[in-house]
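Re: How this chain folds, sequence and tokenised backbone to follow
Notation: Tokens come from a learned vocabulary of local backbone shapes, not from coordinates.
Start of record: The labelled sequence and token lines come straight after this line.
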Amino acid sequence: MTVNSNRFDQGMATRRSVLGDRHVDRTEADKTPFDEPFQALITEGAWGSVWSRPHWTKRERSMVTIALLAALGHDDEVAMHVRAAANTGATREDIQEALLHVAIYAGVPAANHAIKIIKQTFDEMEPDDSSRGGGHVE
């Protein structure tokens, strides 16, 4: 299945700018006929229709996305978007603020669990930087 549309092309460019070429190349290489329609859908829909809109910056979209994924308990996606924040300009402080909103509006357990996932992700991203705030989460 080959997708030829402006929205798909814009979506792929945005996807690469947010997630990075390495991630997208790996996902594309792992694509099978079973998940190819899904990959096309998210490339056109999420990346081409939503992430490519001009009103919010990629930084703002990162913060909202991380908060929503944390509130819904989508751990793998939280970790992926935390790694992507390095490409969008969302800082650790931005992510911290987003999780405070999660705690108030979606519940402390959801935020607490996301903080655990995010701290693990930060450790994977920079394992020798102990100043970032790893450690035990209550």
Q: What stands out?
A: The radius of gyration is 16 Å. Residues 1-54 form one domain. The longest helix spans residues 108-125.
